[in-house]
Structure formats: C-alpha cells, structure tokens
C-alpha cells in the first residue's frame, strides 16, 4: 500500500457511545469497590466492555473483554501481567485511594495494577472506547489501560514511540506470543518482527518508513484511520474505504497483531452485531517470518488469506492440533557401513 499525506474520511459515528477519558460523569466505580471471579465485572455504559476476571487456562486473567457479537463472540483486548500464571478463583481486585490492587489469596500476595500514594485515587471507569481509567478528585487521569497496550489497540488509542504490540500465543492463551509490532524511536519507523530476532531493519517482515525524524507515535483514530503522526505531517497507513462506511451504523474499530503474525484492522458494527477484517499487513500471510515453525513451509489456502503450514518430506507435525508449531523427523536415521556413530 502506498504512503500518502493523511486525508481523513468522514464517517458518522454516534459519539455518545465512544466517550473521552476526561468527562466527570464517567466516574462509575468508587474506592472500596471489590471484584472477584465469582462477581460481576465492571462494565462500560453500553455493556460492550467488561473489566474484571476472565477465564484463562486453569484460572483467570485480569483484563478487558470486548463483547463483539451477542452472546458469545468476544475479544480480550487487554490483560494485566499476561506472562504470569493465571490467578485462582479466590483472588480479588480492590480500588483504594492508593490505586488498584490485585490480592492473591490464600497466598496473601499483592500486585499493584496502579499505585500512586501522592495522587489520591477518587474513582474509576470502564469507558465505551475500551479504555479503563482511574481518576483523581479533579477528574484528571491518573492511569489508563490505553497507555499499556498488549496485542490490540482500539479507535482513539495511540502506540507511542518505542512501545510495541505483542501477539498472543493463541486466541485462548493470551500470554506473549511469537511476533511484535514496534514503533521504533531509533529511526521513527513502524516495524514487525519475529520475537527473539534483533530489532533491526534486515530482520523485519513488514514495515512503514516514516522518512522523517519527527514521528511521535502510531495513531489509530475513531474513524478507523491508521497513521504515523509527526510534527510536520501525517503518513497514512490505512483509511476505511468509502464502500465500508454507513451513515446509520455505530462502528468501533480495532487493530490487532494476530497470534500468527499479521496485523489486522477490524470494524465492529455495534447495531448489527457484526465484525469484519478491513485490511491485513502483510497481505500475504506467508510473508510473516516464522509463521510455520521449523521444518515446514507456508502456502495460502484457496481464499488467499489463510496460511497452511506443510511439513517437509520425512517430517511430521510436532502438534497435530496446531500446524503452526513446526515439524519433527518421522523416520529413523540409517548409517552407511563404516560410518556408524561411536558407542
């Protein structure tokens, strides 16, 4: 996709369903409120977003769930300490004047999601933008999940310089996966890498060149425009096509680095309860470095969007239930006479 100066499309969105983080009326959760896995989550006004304990592995993760399509199609858009073990059903979250605390019982350990004794916490809110925010008594934002993205950003969210999105292992395992997208402070380029590689240009599998030293962030606005923001200009990565706009729709957009390495732009129609992929980067999924694992290779399915990982001759899948995990030998090595291995 060619890069151009930013041209914002006009898309009518019901603004009351996507509030900003500084409105005092949004204070929903008062200090002293406690959550547990057995209690209800903290919901946004529309009920579309839920902050709380969500099932993960043999326990729970603390995160934000986006209810895309009623009743059971959901997306975890953020979670806390994603590489820690899931917590038990005896854990609790408490909002106090000193911050937001995760208490692990019966161990008695405490983890601070947010702590700042110098700025007294007044209240918190789960907003319909997908942002969970903690306010002080002056309605100033003390802490918000939009500043700490995991694998997803929502419309209105920013990926700041030297920050990154890291893929999940799978759609059900939200610990850190194989791929990441970095907004590089060193050269102001937006680049995707296989994790474990050095973050240098020659190791990337997709990038956007900024051609400027003044880029401050990757921006994703509420109209679905994805761009690099600088002091002098903006570099468009993606605009919502005109044939995908609907003046009667209420649409939220999201961008996610998928478990198998593609960056995908989604639109979510809140009235029709539908979601669709608008764009994939890179468009050819087989261009994602390492998507198929060792001893295997990638071909695209008939729809040209889904990668198929095939083992090399003489190899079989490490995990028959996940063809992305590479392959192992399926034969017993033989040796020529006189070349037997030493005893």
UniProtKB/TrEMBL annotation:
Disulfide bonds join 292-309. The keyword NAD does not apply. Residues 1-22 form the signal peptide. Residues 282-321 form the EGF-like domain. Keywords: Disulfide bond, EGF-like domain, Signal. It holds the Pfam family S_locus_glycop. It comes from the Eukaryota. This is Bulb-type lectin domain-containing protein. It comes from Dioscorea zingiberensis.
